[in-house]
Amino acid sequence: MNCTDARRHLDPFQDNELEVAANLEVLKHLNLCPTCAEIFETERRLREAMKASIASERASENLRRRIHEAISRPRARRWIPSLASLAAALMVGTIALVLWNPFSASGRVEAAVLADTAAAYHSVLPADAVDVSGADDSKAMVSLENWFRERGVCACLHDLKAAGYAFGAVGIVEDVNAKGKYSWTLQRTPDGRCVTHMSVPQHLVHMAGGQVMSIGGMEGRFFERGNLKVFLLRTPRVVCVFVTESAREADHVMAALMR
Amino acid sequence: MADRREEFEKLVWPLLDSLLRVARRFVDAAAAEDLVQDTVLRAWRKMDLYRPGTNFKAWIFRILINSGINAIRSRTRHPSLRQLNPEATPDQEARYLRTADLAQLGEWVGDEAKAALEKVPAELKQVFVLSTFEGMTYREISETLEIPIGTVMSRLFRARVLLREELLDYARERGFRK
Ligand SMILES: [Zn+2]
Ligand SMILES: [Zn+2]
């Protein structure tokens, strides 16, 4: 190993990420080469100094108390904890959309308003949303469809299995003018990334605004809501709204929808 | 409910200092506290989605970085940043700090380095902070940021080159390096 090779290994060596053999090679070089030995030693001391410089930064008692209080507050919305409860959950609370007047003069809901609504329901669950984790076989899908049908909701159950998501929860969002009930589903990956998917009868939606796009030949509209990326997709029956947590995630979901 | 909360707190409390330190590398002290509080609340609300037995630390840091730090980053403009010198090769001794430099920088070298870190682009800094300050392995960082290990390594390399160059510049400004 020469100096160039040794220095190329500087980072993984300091990070303890080298294989045993490579590690030995580096050590051997450091024993023979005072210049590299000095460079490596300086780097080590620099790292130690940096670590020491943040050692005094600690979460204050005040922060701990604030957090403890925030998570101790009872949640307004709750999850029914098992798939078995899907059948037993006879009542589904619906909540009114009072934050916005969702209907435009045309009597249809604006795409941008739907994007807002869906984004709001990404972090707050609809009242009495039902936990359906594990419901990914075809039998469960049928019961999900029935569940929405019994409640008079025209639901789209786009599943995002191709993108690694599984159903986590379902619920219903009812608009304030009671012109329609929207299906709401939350799908998630094993590592906790989430996509919210709402569907709204097509005739109720005014597809306008946002960035126009085409997904698999269907018209789409893309909106940014802070950190959330929301897109609407007009299918023959419903308009589907997807909320994702990053642009990359949105691409990922779109690709799965095209499959 | 109380049990779930206790369990959650048991996972979160030991990570609170770390979350704060990482947040602090991107925003000022008050904003960092807000960011951490927001992160923990999000994690608590999403706890149903956390799969026990998987890496909780990677999971909660992902929330901190994805929903907090990246959001802040998208709202603020990048400061003009030093371009990485394409000529930089590992064999140029001038590109490395030497013991004499450390001696000149003196006992505040850690603080100087911390300040220099502010000039490193966020994307590179995320990786650097998780590695050097949090002691995460390349694999853990790759899990946390959802990027390939090769990307972790190249970002770390670039972060460290930039950091060294900032410190060398500083040394030159002070006149003890040519
Ligand atoms: Zn050498
Ligand atoms: Zn759909």
The best one-word shape of chain B is elongated
Q: How is the biggest beta sheet of chain A arranged? A: 8 strands, antiparallel
Which structural class do you get from the secondary structure elements of chain B?
A: mainly alpha
Q: Based on the structure given, which CATH architecture of the largest domain in chain B is correct?
A: Orthogonal Bundle
Q: What count of structural domains of chain B?
A: 2
Number of helical stretches of at least 4 residues of chain A = 9
Supply the CATH class of the largest domain in chain A. Alpha Beta
Spans of chain A of at least 5 consecutive residues whose pLDDT stays below 50 are: 76-105
Strand content of chain A: 15-25%
CATH architecture of the largest domain in chain A: 2-Layer Sandwich
Descriptive notes:
The complex is a heterodimer of chains A (259) and B (178). With 259 residues, chain A is of the alpha+beta class. Chain A folds into two domains: 3-54, no CATH class; 79-258, 2-Layer Sandwich (Phosphorylase Kinase, domain 1), CATH 3.30.200.100. Chain A has helices at residues 3-8, 10-14, 20-32, 34-54, 61-72, 85-88, 111-123, 138-150, 247-258; strands at 109-110, 130-131, 166-174, 181-188, 194-201, 205-206, 211-215, 218-225, 228-234, 238-244. In chain A, the strands form two sheets. In chain A, strands 2-3-4-5-10-9-8-7 form an eight-stranded antiparallel beta sheet, with helices on both faces. In chain A, strand 8 and strand 9 (228-234) form a beta hairpin. By secondary structure, chain B is mostly helical. Chain B has two domains: 1-98, Rna Polymerase Sigma Factor, Chain: A (Orthogonal Bundle), CATH 1.10.1740.10; 108-178, Winged helix-like DNA-binding domain superfamily/Winged helix DNA-binding domain (Arc Repressor Mutant, subunit A, Orthogonal Bundle). Chain B is 66% helix and 0% strand. Chain B contains nine helices and no strands. Chain B starts with a helix and ends in a 5-residue tail after the last helix. The model of chain B is unreliable at 74-84 (pLDDT under 50). At the A-B interface, helix 1, helix 2, helix 4 and helix 5 of A face helix 1, helix 2, helix 3, helix 4 and helix 5 of B. The structure holds zinc ion (2 copies). One zinc ion binds at residues 156, 158, 197, 199, 240 of chain A.
